[in-house]
Amino acid sequence: MERPAKKTNKELLAEREKHVPRGPFNGTPLFAARAEGAKVWDVEGKEYVDFAGGIGVVNAGHRPASVVEAIRDQAGKFLHTCFHVMMYEPYVALAKRLNALAPGAFPKKTMFANSGAEAVENAVKVARAHTKRPAVICFEDAFHGRTLLALSLTSKIDPYKQGFAPFAPEVYRMPYAYCYRCPIGLTYPSCKVACADLVEEAFLNKVHADSVAALVVEPVLGEGGFVVPPPEYLPKLKAICEKHGILFIADEVQTAFGRTGRLFAVEHWNVAPDILLTAKSLAAGLPLSAITGRSEVMDAPGVGGLGTTFGGNPLACRAALAVLDLMEKERLPEKGAAIGEVVQRCFREWQERYEIIGDVRALGAMVALELVSDRQKKTPAKAETKLVIKKCYEKGLLTIGAGTHNNVIRTLMPLVIGEADLCRGLDTLEEAISEVAA
Hints:
By secondary structure, this protein is α/β, with parallel strands linked by helices. The chain folds into two domains: 9-63 and 331-437, Aspartate Aminotransferase, domain 1, CATH 3.90.1150.10; 68-329, Type I PLP-dependent aspartate aminotransferase-like (Major domain) (Aspartate Aminotransferase, domain 2), CATH 3.40.640.10. The protein has 13 helices and 16 strands. Strands 4-10-9-8-7-5-6 form a seven-stranded mixed beta sheet, with helices on both faces. Strands 11, 12, 13, 15 and 16 form a five-stranded antiparallel beta sheet that branches. It has a four-stranded mixed beta sheet with strand order 1-2-3-14. The protein starts with 8 loop residues before the first helix and ends with a helix.
């Protein structure tokens, strides 16, 4: 174990509060000193199993050797030229790779930005340029980022939107297939996924179909609480889009790269998006996002209509190419599926033991617990969820919450996690839940 740093967590927290605004949320009072694989050590030398994964960024693990080597090699050549000034091969090579991997038997093109929010913003710009239409359909409980248009598409008010109005116009929000808390009071499967049909109805009283450029949807809600829609849901939405000439944009910022047991979550529904958005785990921690879409769609904006100074940074592109190699070599999507089976089995066993667990839902390693103080009324257990997370990091486990009601605990452990660390993390989480539920 390495020696404790000169400053403690408490000392650094005092400096953070003095020099950094309160707006950026911190889930723990801890400061990282190093990380590797599925573990992190704080500045005082304490070890933590990581079930948060940098909010879904390190599917390939912390500091994978091949990725670090690719970054080191690129850093020895050049750090930045700006792709718009002098191009470089890693950008084109990564675009080619993603075009081949993305679902859909049609020609594709890819451009790069820095964050998931930028990917969303650029995708909508592309869709508007292609369709010559202004409106965008999005969904309740969705999260698409914090920039103006992305924040307009994001659903949750507090804290994301509170005090930041006005928002972008021509955004129309529909209910999502949140079966545990059905927005229209029905029950699956007898409902026949009627929530998807509400999009058609919206064309009668919210916005004309001929005005809609795109429908933006997360295949599985991320910040909204890891809500997995029924098998019929995404195909229904895609069919509606095709019927009316609306582009189907899949926001896979959190779901892509093995998290759900497939490279891309939409593969579970056999849906090929017109535009696919990725970020987070694409470059193992370096800022990079990708907008991958049909060639004719992506070519709609004119020369100079799209761009960003840092987007597709050469270090990030080299890191992403190494990540994709690792995904294939180590079969990380398959590992994601296997991890998901273990975690889901544990969570369902806990659900039988602890009344506080109202719902368990999962797709691959994207597994969540929704905590409630009353199972019959499904009353969100917000304070209890916060306490579970606190007890976890005090016991050596990093985990994070989610959900519009702040009552969901989600798992985003690196897909390279070993059996011993996975079991240790699950034991710690159950211990925290049992203490709170007592």
